[in-house]
Amino acid sequence: MSARFAGSQRVGDRRRRRLAVEAEGTTAEDAPRHALPAPAGVKRMLDMPNTSAPCQVTENSSNPPELPINQVVPLERWKYSIAGVAVLAVNGSLVALGQLSRKLAAWAGPQFAELFAPASGPATKWFSGILVGLAAQLSLLIWWGRSRSTKDFDGRYWLWTQTAIAWFLLSGCLALNGGQVAADVLKTIQPTIPTTWLPLAWIVPALVAGLFVERGLRREMRGCRASRVLMIGAWLSYLATAAIDLGAAASISPRAQLQLQQIALLTGHAALFFSMWVHARHVFHVSPDPVVIPVRTWKIPRPQLRLPRIWPFVRRTSAVAVLGAATPETEATFEIPKSRQAKRRETSQREPSLPEAPAAETPVKSTPTPIPAAPAEIDELAELERMADEDAQHAADQAAHTAPAAESIVPKSHFRIDSRHEPMELEDVSQAQHEASQKSSDNSDYEGEDDDDSSGRADLKGLSKKQRRRLIQEQRARERANRGQ
């Protein structure tokens, strides 16, 4: 078991994974359950420890009391609506007091007017610090709730600690007026830098940190649409603030720019706070498990960038240039590299095409395919067939003139030289052929070359190729001997 979970980086992660796997094989039917407070129509139960002895908690026990999660993160949505209206009312009041700061200076003094100055007033900084600080604390609460998940094997809940650190740093920068301090430091280091570029001293670091945090939060908030929409609204508000500070609204008066910047900042802080709060409700009341990222069914195909194969083309070009045009002699002597298309064409030509299957209604007689002969034997086979046809014709003519010959000789015009025939023994055939030749030479005179050939070749039927070749050679030898005499 220890070897199976050795890949986890922390001891707590290995223990949680081990407990999750062990819990799959146990049943919690007999486990005691404890009812939790819930609104009307909703039933919430808590599984108690599955032990034989009941859990006894005394008043003097050192265990801490149960945290009031339901009071910090309520389940009812109307409570979040009331809190949102209250925060928007405070933001509106701060913006209105910033716009009336000049009239307040004449009525209550300049110090009271500077307290509600737009964008950089102490009241605006104080309320912004509260909202961002509460968002950081809610991030730590979400981290604690997510750490209780038995399915987060990758340890993705540690992202919320990084998020809490980022929100704490943002709260400190807002309280200490970090943007103005960074601009003054950049002006001191580079006196020649334009004034319009000074806001980049705080925009660039904030943008880098925001992209780092946003990438992880976008994946974590996939299961809660409300918190995700609020987070997107916060990012847009912060981007609007940076654009105004860079001079995107230079056509209006400087005081109006400060008021727009104050509205964008307060809206972004409020959206950030409610995003963390609503997501905490999702973790504690819906599911503390990480969201399974769906597999994308459609994606933009990546271009397959491949360099052209120049080397084979260069080799072929150089070989043709040296050897000239491709001839059978040059191809036999030198092997010229072929292109890819030529190789594919040769491969397609070599592959035999499959014949179409005959229809089931019309039966086709299967004819045995002849075995192709070697090139050296083609002439001899053709000569043997020609001689066999002549012998068959001569036998038919003799059968028409003489009745005894017709009874003994059966003409056969079509035959096939095949190894499946059962030829006679070679010695018997040669002896019979010798006797037939002796009879023909004694009883009849020499009538010409055709008559001698037909009288000896009439007995070639039913013999194998080797026997026929041997008989033909013997006949030719005897003919040469007769002609020499």
Give the tags.
485 residues, mainly alpha, two-stranded antiparallel ribbon, 19 helices, disordered N terminus
Brief summary of the model shown:
The chain is an all-alpha fold. It is 60% helix and 1% strand.
What would you say this structure looks like, in words?
The chain has 485 residues and is mostly helical. Among the domains are: 83-285, no CATH class; 383-484. The protein has 19 helices and 2 strands. The protein has helices spanning 11-24, 69-72, 77-99, 101-108, 110-115, 122-146, 159-175, 178-189, 200-220, 225-245, 254-285, 310-323, 328-333, 340-350, 378-401, 403-408, 426-443, 449-457, 465-484; strands at 33-35, 45-47. Strands 1-2 form a two-stranded antiparallel sheet. Helix 3 (77-99) packs antiparallel against helix 11 (254-285) and helix 10 runs antiparallel to helix 11. Mean pLDDT is 72; it is low at 1-6, 57-65, 355-361, 403-427 and 443-458.
SSE arrangement, N to C = HEEHHHHHHHHHHHHHHHHHH
What is the spatial order of strands in the main beta sheet? 1-2
The percent range for strand residues is under 5%
- Count of DSSP H/I helices: 19
Evaluate the radius of gyration.
52 Å
Helix coverage percent of residues?
55-70%
**Average pLDDT:** 72
Give the overall form.
elongated
Q: How far is it from the N-terminal to the C-terminal residue, by CA? A: 107 Å
Structural class: mainly alpha
Query: How many β-strand stretches?
Result: 2
Biggest sheet overview:
2 strands, antiparallel
- The residue ranges in which pLDDT falls below 50 over 5 or more consecutive positions are 1-6, 57-65, 355-361, 403-427, 443-458
